[in-house]
Amino acid sequence: MRFAANRPVAFDVAYPVEALPVPLVHSATMSDEFPYQYKIEVDKAPRPRPPKETAVIDQVGCTGCEACISFCPVDCIEIVPGPEHPDFMKLVEVDLLRCIGCKLCARYCPWETIDMWSYDEGVALAPEKTVRSILYDYDPDEMNEAAEYSA
Ligand code: SF4
Ligand code: SF4
After folding, report:
1. Is 50 in contact with 31 (CB distance < 8 Å)?
2. Which domain holds residue 108?
3. Rounded distance, CA 79 to CA 9, Å?
């Protein structure tokens, strides 16, 4: 099934080997205009075009409840290891290259920590809303100051 929930992604080598899913062989296509590089290979179908809006999770307010994951129709929200310990207080992040802007995650996040932005705004704001990313190689200086926990 193409959009099966919790389909595995390949993490980078910064996390414990026992926590890693099986590595995947296909990469999603990177947009020429997209400013960040994937840190992992994502074996999920790319969207046909960028959406008008995109969801960005403010990870400082994320409890890791995973409710958003169950609502996302394209399975583009990934679980991120906890900032202080990989297995505790996990976070989630949106794959900005795959979000279709449907707003369901923002509507149903119990902690109201997902906002919808215009695509360009969301892409620009993503690093400062992010504490830890498994997906994108953000500049640490642009990330939320809580990122100090993930150093
Ligand atoms: S629903 Fe909200 S609080 Fe729960 S994991 Fe998603 S972003 Fe975090
Ligand atoms: S806006 Fe829709 S497609 Fe984008 S992350 Fe949220 S649920 Fe998924």
Report:
1. yes
2. 16-149
3. 10
**Alpha-carbon gap, residue 55 to 102, rounded angstroms:** 8
Domain count for the chain, please give it: 1
> Which ligand is the nearest neighbour of the Cα of 111?
1
Q: Which two tokens stand for residue 55?
A: 């969801």
Considering the domain boundaries, does residue 106 fall inside one? yes
| Most distant pair of Cα atoms in the chain: their distance | 39
State residue 30's pLDDT score. Answer: 57
CB of 72 shorter than 6 A to ligand 2: yes
Closest CA to 37 of 96, 91, 93, 83: 96
The pLDDT of 36-52, averaged and rounded, is 92
Q: Is 67 in the pocket of ligand 2 (CB under 6 A)?
A: no
